[in-house]
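Progress narrative, work stream C.
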Amino acid sequence: MILNELEQKVNLSIHQTDFNTILDALCTTLLNTFDQSLNLGEAEIELHPESHVSQMVEEFQLDTLDLKLIALAYAWEYDPALLKSLADAFSNRDLRQLYGGTLDKDTANFYPTLKTFLALFYSKDEYQNALLKYTSIEYPLTKYGILSYSDEGNIGESNLNHRVQLASNYVSYLLGGKRPQLDHEYDFPARLLTSKVPFDKIVHDKETREGLEDLQKYMKVRPILKNNPSLKKKLNNTHIIIFSGSPGTGKSLTATSLGEAYHLPTYTLDLSRVLSRYVGDFEKAMEKVFSRLDGRDCILFIDEADSIFTKRQEEVKDTKDKYANQEMSYLLQRLERFDGVVILATNVQDIRTHLDKAMLRRISTIVEFPFPKQQQRLELWQNAIPEGFTFGEGVLDKLSANFQLSGANISNIISGVIIEALSINTTELTYEMIEPIMKKEYYKRDSRFMACPDNSPAAALMEQRLGRTAVHSGRRM
């Protein structure tokens, strides 16, 4: 126990020592700039290969100046005394114009901007090229949300006059904390999904399992493709798959569990953060997602994909059609360049009639997720109950044979039933306990509560599986 604690302290010391090294390098530059009589020379940045600073340098191919930009962003927020020389220089109008930034009237702390950094480290001849580098959408420190240019407290729209800000969770990481996820920013338009069910435990019918085989093969060989440039040139970077099926049939669960099985975290697009009434906002939000996940070992999962992947209008009748066509064209072009796995999920029956032809050409596979039949429902009910609980005699057969319920429905019902069982101190789940909770689930989806085996008429099956409004809406089973 003592050895483990000592090892943790040593590891923490490695990260903090290396971070202090880049802070020292920044301080040396500031001292040389504002007190030339010192003539200290530039500090050497030597990093421990196991430190988080060193690992980030290797991953993003950072140079010394990138590290000093990180140090500058850290200093104003966490150790403002390091920037005292810049604060003192602020009273000089010429220096203020040269270095930019702002001075807090209450604390006298200096807030540096991108202009401050460029003036400190680049000559006039280098200035414009440096500005292009640090404001490029491909600059890794801003692309992955490690740094941002915040306009808080500054005047003007240019990034040049915005504060350089270091993400708080990357502060923790650089000092020895946990590695942040790709969706670490609160406003990032995608979020990480996790699954409680291993992929091999998910209930699929034979056709769905066979449909998933191609995707599994691709995920298995993806590391080989990434490390073989000659192979990669001959194959598409983007692997797009459609999961098509009724709500609750396991599309999201399958995408997440499959990703975890192949060590590819699954990020789901948050449609509420990308759909906008303002022109250009959609493309801007989607670009943030694509650029962040591009080339990373992960899956982009887009639920209700039919809401954004629609056919382009051949006859543009109004401005709405015009901008919808522009958005679709952007998606097609961006997917063409995207390096990664994209899974599109839809509830639409025969998605082929809904998608643009150019989009269909980019699809690798369409995997159908049919509503579970009796055998699948039997397995779903069996898998849903926690260890230590059992169904009463004949209950499992009665439930699976007579009630049209999806995996999501069954999971919801079992959650309520287990609470009921615990409240009355029993481990046996009887039909009398389950029925009232089933009725609530039927009410939510607007279905009549009734027995409906798989050989019932199609209209009855549709009403039972999707609700009464589905009978005339054209929705799928």
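Work stream C, second folded protein:
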Amino acid sequence: MILALLLFAQVTPSDAVAGYADCLSSRINADPAMIDPPADVAARLAIHDAALKLCAPKRKSARPDDAAMFDKVDASTRKVLEDPVSAEQVDGDLSDAPKP
């Protein structure tokens, strides 16, 4: 999903950014709470923050040139978890996303 958002923005991520996006996405999806995503925005953002911490080493070991791309990945994943309905309207089908 994250990579699709990056491609939609017509940017090319480096391998490090793609790996970071995969890490972030897989950590969020692997969280047991995401089996039935919480309706509470704060709870979903807590899952995002935990994934950010776990994937931070991938970001720290990358080129400084990729900083803006990492920020875009962080912002797009946060946007999806913060307001899935709005993200669906902008970025495509998120039919299984919790409704706020």
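Residues 19 and 73 are 11 Å apart (CA to CA). No further action is required on this item.
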